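hey
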């Protein structure tokens, strides 16, 4: 998992930002599908 991505997730969790967490999870899922 890229560092910038981990930072974004930590920030989202810290702010309890459910919408952003959901968005990041979807992005990560798509990213993994394309690259692996």
């Amino acid at each position: 998992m890229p560092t910038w991505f981990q930072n974004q997730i930590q920030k989202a969790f810290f702010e309890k930002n459910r919408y952003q967490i959901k968005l990041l999870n979807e992005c990560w899922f798509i990213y993994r599908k394309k690259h692996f």
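The helical segments are 3-14, 18-35. Residues 18-35 form the longest helix (18 residues).
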